[in-house]
Amino acid sequence: MNNEVIMNKIKKLQEMINESNEIVFFGGAGVSTDSGIKDFRSKDGLYNQKHKQNLMYMLSVDCFNKEPKNFFDFYRENFNCLMVQPNITHKYLKKLEDVGKLKAIVTQNIDGLHQKAGSTNVYEVHGTLYENYCLECHEFYSAEYIFNSVEVPKCKCGSIIKPKVTLYGEMLPEAYSQAQQIIYEADMLIVAGTSLTVEPASSLVRMFKGKYLVIINNDATFYDSKATLVLNNNLKDVFSNLK
Ligand code: ZN
After folding, report:
1. What is the domain count for the chain?
2. pTM of the predicted structure, to 2 decimals
3. Tens digit of pLDDT for each residue in 154-171?
4. What are the catalytic residues?
5. Which range marks the domain in which residue 45 is found?
6. SS3 call for 96
């Protein structure tokens, strides 16, 4: 696609944003890749086919219960985002919230980067690594506490601590049903950095009844035909050109 086509699409997107007042942003792993976080499902991501079964197990509630030491070794090695910083997409969305246009962010990411950028209304449909609770007494523990631990992280009461991250085999958090409602009420939905191939992503998009559905993703998605505007570009190339 040539540059002029891209710039025209970005101009259209800008007009839609200018016109809308109840915008919801729904993002996936691609939102964080510009911050240096690997996309689980990309070719060189954690989920490359060869290890897929194993990795799904490593992130399952089964593994957490049966082999907590292996679970936390894997978790600490792959999910430590403490030093990661928000990128231009996170920062743009914070700006859009400040001017009163962005109603909410719905994210599949657990890295907390939207909050780091200053966004306040964030629905984390797969949970967050920033909240950790003792399974017995429900005492709160920070992400630092988990990532700086060496063994299975334990509460002062002696019980195991669990990250509030949705594992395979677990129910989605309360934020998921709230996200459904917020998307249902939006006048514009910007979907970015997600292939929309897995649930609950596609179900969330189906909730949208507003005017403009915009999809920004490197590759085509299943919902492209239903979208008002599709941009198959890197997120930073799009968001760095928006006001
Ligand atoms: Zn406890």
Report:
1. 2
2. 0.93
3. 999 999 999 999 999 999
4. 126
5. 38-80+128-165
6. helix
